[in-house]
Specification:
The chain has about 280 residues and is an alpha+beta fold. Among the domains are: about 110 residues, no CATH class; about 80 residues, no CATH class. The protein is built from 8 helices and 6 strands. The chain has a 6-stranded antiparallel sheet with strand order 1-2-3-4-5-6, covered by helices on one side. Helix 1 runs antiparallel to helix 2. It is elongated. It starts with a helix and ends with a helix.
Amino acid sequence: MSEQEFIRQLQEALSRIPERERQEIVDDYCEYFRDGLAAGRSEADIAAGLGDPRQLARELMARHHIERWESRKSFGNLFAVVGAIAGLGFLNFMLAIPFLCYLWLLTMAALASTGILIGGIVVFGTLTCNALFGWPALHEERDVRAFWSTFESGAPAANIHIRGHHGEKVDVVRDASSGRASIDIQSSDGALSLERKASDAIGQLHIQDEEGRVDIDALDWGISRKGGWIAGVVMMLLGGGGLFLCYLLARLTWRGLLSYGRYQLGLLDKARRMDD
């Protein structure tokens, strides 16, 4: 292969790097050819010693992307390094596929952790500002917890009994002696019972029809302001811990990838020197 053909193929293979850097590389190899010719070697001999210009271009591009990553760390440069190393050989290409999947999962984990952290900050900050300054205003619905509190504070006369013409029954009962409060609804299609004892922090729900019965013994009555604070703190800890773990994994990944890339380039340089 002549010098002109070698340089032409090298320039075409380096078309994806900036013009200035590409020209510097071409000038270096033109000078290499001049030194070889001055030493009495032929153009074909010099080109054979350098190897395939396209493979040489892939090695030079890998070095270029590694140097660019070291000067400016970004996801774009990282993926460029992975692609350049994958181009060094078939085995590297096969290894790049699961590695790219790993990078995608790591990115998704970092985004999820960021979302959880921001959510925890918003919840905790909103409740704290409301408690200290009354802003923003929080409008709490009259949920089941509020209903039970109102119902249990009533007198025994607050009991309600409703009967229908076809055997339907609705009983709203508060037992003053035991503190038990319940709502029982029965019809020909089935029965529903909602109850809570005075000592229970949670309630019980029972649903029954002709096909079977469902019992739920851990029916919560909503979340308190204190529970909201705890949830906010837990979210911040989970999100912050997840981000920190992703950061550590990313640093280990970057270092391992660069070490592997330099190792592969070193093997190629060693093989080229042995051919010379």
